[in-house]
Amino acid sequence: MISQDPALSLLRRRVMDVTGIDIGCYKQQQMERRLRALLDRSRVESYYEYAKMIENDPEKARELWDFITINVTEFFRNPDRYRDLQEKILPTLYAGKPLNVWSAGCAHGAEPYSLAIVLHETGAAAHRILATDIDRRVLDRARAGVYEENDLKNVPPERMRYFVKGDNGKYVVADSIKKHVAFTYHDLLSDGYPGDLDMVVCRNVVIYFTEEAKERVFRGFAAALRPGGILFVGETETVFNPRIIGFEPVTPFFYRRVQ
Ligand SMILES: C[S@@+](CC[C@H](N)C(=O)[O-])C[C@H]1O[C@@H](n2cnc3c(N)ncnc32)[C@H](O)[C@@H]1O
Predict the structure, then answer these.
(1) For residue 135, which atom of ligand 1 is closest to its CA?
(2) Which pLDDT value is given to residue 93?
């Protein structure tokens, strides 16, 4: 947690004022490394100077924002996990009603659209996917659902039918998939969580958070899920002591909300 160094504390407050993000909830070493690189790039020596700079220069604030929100994503990221989702998890989730899913930290939309495709193929009719992020720019892109060919490199040929190629060579997500996904702004570290969910998908987001913040987020997910609901995390992520916060492991990277 960034707190001891007064210059960093000042910068933390400035970043909070300008971007609404609390960098104190992100891993300190990683954050400081990134901030140092930004300081070098901006040719300023101290956090004080940098705090002043982002206050006065919206471009610098934007640059900082981009550094904090690492938007790397891809369709069907870790295909084996999507296979587990489709074959092992979803069949246990259906209770005859449409599923309510939350893709938290959805970046430019590859994750919620991949989920929508898998749900569609599993025969779920009227499922709803709430897709959220703190980066409004990626949310605009996600809403449009327009992708370059390179963005779709992980989409298997049989799933290319869910994308419509336009005259400009770009691909648009088919309406039959798009209509299930709603995008909105949400900060996992400061906003309230939705409830009565069947599944929360939060992958490659909390890796940047401090242990404290991470636990708070996982507890929030447990409360947001209905009993029996599923939490799906990223390939390098683990919920430590899952039972204490109301989860039981199902298969790697999937946890079930216990009664
Ligand atoms: C590396 S991307 C992961 C995207 C996708 N979940 C995946 O696994 O491919 C991380 C995303 O988390 C978002 N993010 C970072 N901090 C967040 C926060 N406090 N609340 C919500 N989203 C956040 C970033 O803006 C970014 O789009």
Answers:
(1) 25
(2) 87
Question: For the whole prediction, is pTM greater than 0.90?
Answer: yes
CA-wise closest residue to 10 among 48, 39, 43, 45: 48
pLDDT in tens, 79-89: 999 999 999 99
Kindly report the average pLDDT of the chain as a whole number: 92
Same domain, 13 and 124: no
CA-closest residue to ligand 1 atom 7: 73
Of the residues 68, 95, 118, the one at which a domain ends: 68
Q: How far apart are CA 245 and CA 225, in angstroms?
A: 12
Q: Please check whether residue 164 is in contact with residue 193, taking contact to mean a CB–CB distance below 8 angstroms.
A: no
- Which amino acid, residue 23? I
Using the mean position of ligand 1's atoms as its centre, give its distance from the Cα of residue 30 in Å: 15
In terms of domains, do 52 and 108 share one? Answer: no
Q: Is the domain of 98 the same as that of 171?
A: yes
The atom of ligand 1 lying closest to the CA of 72 is 1
